[in-house]
UniProtKB/TrEMBL annotation:
Keyword Membrane: yes
Domain of life: Bacteria
Species, as recorded: Phaeobacter italicus
Record's protein name: OpgC protein
UniProtKB keywords: Membrane, Transmembrane, Transmembrane helix
Record-linked Pfam families: OpgC_C
Length: 423
């Protein structure tokens, strides 16, 4: 066969060497980072709590974390979302640069935005249908304070699409959307150093909580409706501090805290001793058991209102959640080893199944959250049609759990692209 190589036959070895030098370097494919079982597990737990908390007239809301301290499931959701974002988006910034990382964040913001709009339209339509055809002795539109929207839809539609109109019950996703939008800024500052990120996050939080700097009660916020002074129930400028705290831990910007008996004791004491000061339910128990102590605690509620405020994410809430998260982190063990069932006993197999289910719900948190917010209103309708007994309440809560589990597995199935040919 004729020699068609551009190099002479006696230089075939040299030709191979030159070709190898000219070929692009073989970059090993990045290894997929293993999912942290703690992240999925606790985010899944938050989804179940959030569903309970949003079912109207639900007896079970008397036992959610918010009844025993300052923080609640929203803190778990935001903190874990920050950790998940460090894995999903932080790695993109690291591998592909700031522009591609920002593009991915913008795409996620686009998804969250339309999830918010779709959720509002679905619930508003459902409530309107119930009022129109249900013949109930209550207004479901009024139960969500949507009467201004239906009475004057033209400006409210514009406000809805521009996030200038954010009714209560629909305020978590807008907050998450704005916090996500801050991520490219923080990733740009991280090039200067972590201190720049920390200074920016703390500075923004202080602008939302000016009482910390002695600047008075009113900080920066976003208007929730044009006809009043009400701001977004979740001020993103306050809540971003928690999001980026979770981000910093997962990204390795902040070191993991040490496991020590002193920190465990301090965290537990913070949660237990401050419970009457942050939970009306615990306070009622203390007040009934020791009225004199109740009289001492009652005046502090007004004094500490700003420090434990939910809207702007007060400092006491931040400390409460960090203490709770630390104890949960210690209990889960390094790498979540204490969560993973060992052995072949019946109890181990049951726990392994529960862990798998809860983690699946945590992995599909956006789909589950949107679904659960719509589902909660329908479960509330079911309770309205019953006597709200212990059994019927348990039935509707457990039905809701089963449905959000089904939503998680369905979302995961669609994300796996089962219609693609597998080689």
């Amino acid at each position: 066969m004729a020699n068609i190589s551009p190099f002479p036959a006696n230089q075939s070895g040299d030709a191979t060497e030159v070709a190898n030098r000219l070929a692009p370097p073989q970059v090993p494919a990045p290894q997929r980072r293993a999912r942290d079982p703690r992240l999925d597990f606790f985010r899944g737990i938050a989804m179940f709590i959030i569903l309970c908390a949003h079912i109207p007239g639900n007896r079970w809301t008397g036992w959610i974390p918010a009844r025993f301290g300052f923080s609640d499931a929203t803190e778990i959701f935001v903190f874990c979302s920050g950790m998940a974002s460090a894995v999903a988006f932080g790695s993109t910034f690291a591998r592909r640069g700031w522009l591609i990382g920002t593009a991915r964040v913008i795409f996620r913001c686009w998804q969250v935005y339309w999830a918010h709009i779709g959720l509002f339209v679905f619930i508003a339509t459902t409530m309107a249908a119930l009022d129109l055809y249900g013949g109930f002795d209550k207004s479901y539109i009024g139960s969500l304070n949507l009467i201004p929207f239906f009475e004057n839809p033209v400006p409210q539609l514009v406000g809805l699409m521009t996030l200038a109109y954010v009714p209560n019950y629909f305020d978590i996703l807008p907050m998450y959307l704005v916090v996500l939008g801050l991520m490219p800024v923080m990733m740009g500052l991280e090039r200067i150093g972590f201190w720049a990120v920390a200074a920016a996050s703390i500075g923004i939080w202080l602008l939302a909580n000016p009482y910390m700097a002695g600047f008075g009660p009113d900080g920066i916020g976003l208007s929730a409706e044009p006809w009043s002074q009400r701001e977004w129930f979740f001020n993103p400028f306050g809540w971003q501090l928690l999001f980026f705290t979770g981000f910093a831990f997962m990204a390795g910007w902040l070191p993991a805290p040490p496991v020590s008996k002193q920190l465990i004791g301090l965290s537990a004491a913070y949660l237990v001793l401050l419970a009457p000061f942050g939970s009306w339910k615990v306070f009622l128990w203390v007040d009934a058991a020791m009225p004199a102590l109740g009289d001492l605690i009652r005046p502090t509620w007004a004094v500490t209102s700003e420090w434990r405020e939910k809207t702007d994410f007060g400092l006491l809430r931040y400390g409460h959640f960090l203490a709770l998260a630390y104890l949960a982190w210690v209990a889960a063990g390094e790498g979540g080893k204490h969560l993973i069932a060992t052995g072949h006993s019946l109890a181990a197999r049951i726990w392994a199944g529960l862990l798998r289910i809860i983690s699946k719900v945590g992995q599909q948190s956006l789909a589950v959250f949107v679904f659960s917010m719509a589902l909660a209103r329908l479960l509330g309708l079911g309770l309205d049609l019953t006597n709200r007994s212990v059994l019927t309440t348990a039935f509707f809560n457990l039905l809701g759990f089963a449905l959000i589990i089904g939503c998680a597995y369905t979302a995961a199935w669609f994300k796996s692209h089962p219609w693609k040919t597998k080689k």
